[in-house]
Amino acid sequence: MFQPSRAGDIVRCVLLLTTCAILAAEPWIASAQDASEIAGIWRGNSVCAAPSSPCRNEMNVYRFSEILHQPNRFSCTASKILDGREIVMGGSEWTYDSSKHLLQTATPNPTIRLTLDHDTLDGALTLPDNTIYRRIHLKKSLD
Asked: CA–CA separation, 117 vs 37, rounded Å?
């Protein structure tokens, strides 16, 4: 067992333990920071990427909220703006990979993958055959 013989040894031991505690908490801190960056209202557009499809370019609103007791999981309600009104298209669960800054729908078919870069989310909606159907660009709203 370690028995410090001098006050300097005690200080070094405390510093070492404190450093270990900070390093162990770092992934959780980063994850919590990213979660707070994701939760909220995001506004932007989705642009059709599949030629000769029934797709139409849209203005969108995505509302993300953290799912309690499920780290890196979010609930999202997505809407489009039509004639100045917000029309809800649906809701889904999403997962976040903090190491890749990647937010994506929890279930595929289709899959939406968005990359977080400060106050923007950029990505695409991909069909089961890997066709990119829509390109999505969102910016965090302050309201």
From this structure: 10
Residues in the chain: 143
> What fold characterizes domain 38-140?
Lipocalin (2.40.128)
Predicted local confidence at residue 7, as pLDDT: 52
Q: How many CB atoms lie within 10 A of CB 96?
A: 22
Q: Where are the domains of the chain?
A: 38-140
CA distance 33 to 75: 17
Which pLDDT value is given to residue 51? 87
pTM > 0.85: no
Alpha-carbon distance of 48 to 54, in angstroms, equals 9
Q: Tokens for 140, please give them.
A: 């965090």
